[in-house]
Amino acid sequence: MEYRKIFEAEFREFNRDILEKSWEWLNDPIIKELTSASEFDAESQERWFESLKTRNDYYIRSVWYKDKPIGVMGIKHLTDKDGEAFGYLGEKEYWGKTIGVQGLQYMIDYAKSIKLESLYAIVLKENINSYKLMRRLGFEKEKEIDENAIVMRLYLFPKEN
Questions:
Q1: Rounded to whole angstroms, how far apart are CA atoms 26 and 39?
Q2: Which pTM value belongs to this model?
Q3: How far apart are CA 107 and CA 127, in angstroms?
């Protein structure tokens, strides 16, 4: 896919420093609403972070611009067939600057490299920008979850007849 990169994002390991930034980002009311982030406390976040060391169902990266962490992208609920793409830019001045496109493409490329059949995402109906991003990269609406959210899916390899 062709697009003009306004900023060149870099994807790095998700570490404790990013965990602390994520705490700040996911407690921002706008980001919390747009990501449907569930309530969590420092203790549960720490348990989740420690669990990453032994989990095979989670791939997560921090997003950087120059030397500044600006967001998180990943795939959760990984199986041998698919996984749920997710992400958020915590630094709002980078919204609309193609970093979401770069991050989602990075996750698509990773999913292809491990031979997943598809990726899916849960998108809030009110989050028009996420919906447009998913459509731009080939995700199609698969089903409605409820009155607030839909599942969108991208098949990574052509289906065999």
A1: 9
A2: 0.87
A3: 20
